[in-house]
């Protein structure tokens, strides 16, 4: 990749990280995002008791939010002009999440034009998978450049 194109791609990834941090919903779910390369996103977060269901483990809301975000940002890293929208997400719960650090990893799987497919998984502090999901994301009519949080 030519240096100027590589610099543009890196700027897009940093701008997506900025967009993630600017989303008000992330005030409710303290987390950090890293998009080290196109097609891959990693979100680190802490499971706190405030997100537990009545049986003492993380509510499915947290699984969905973090896997959707990881897969979404992995896919949107492949698209530099438009904001993507989640059109479907299928998830599987494989282990209860307790208090502590968790990593959500998202990967772009296919598609670049209109619809993109991404996968995500949650990895607990013991290195075990706690959830896995697949999402489809569609290009919207919203230019990334018009979103205040998108800062290259």
Note the main attributes of this structure:
alpha+beta, globular, single chain, 41% strand, six-stranded antiparallel beta sheet, 152 residues, Thiol Ester Dehydrase, Chain A
Q: Topology of this structure?
A:
Blueprint: H1 3-22, E1 31-37, E2 40-47, H2 60-76, E3 82-93, E4 100-110, E5 115-123, E6 129-143
Antiparallel strand pairs: 1-2, 2-4, 3-6, 4-5, 5-6
What do you see in this structure?
- The chain has 152 residues and is α+β, with helices and mostly antiparallel strands.
- The chain has helices spanning 3-22, 60-76, and strands at 31-37, 40-47, 82-93, 100-110, 115-123, 129-143.
- A 6-stranded antiparallel sheet has the order 1-2-4-5-6-3.
Approximately how much beta-strand content do the residues carry?
Answer: 35-45%
Order of helix and strand elements from N to C terminus: HEEHEEEE
Q: What's the number of extended β-strand segments?
A: 6
Query: What is the CATH top level name?
Result: Alpha Beta
Shape: globular
* Helix-residue proportion: 10-25%
Radius of gyration: 15 Å
- Strand adjacency order, main sheet: 1-2-4-5-6-3
CATH fold-level topology? Thiol Ester Dehydrase, Chain A
Structural class: alpha+beta
Separation of the first and last Cα atoms = 19 Å
Largest sheet, if any?
6 strands, antiparallel
Average of pLDDT: 95
From the 3D coordinates, which CATH architecture would you assign? Roll
Give a short summary of the structure:
Helices cover 24% and strands 41% of the residues. It has 152 residues and is α+β, with helices and mostly antiparallel strands.
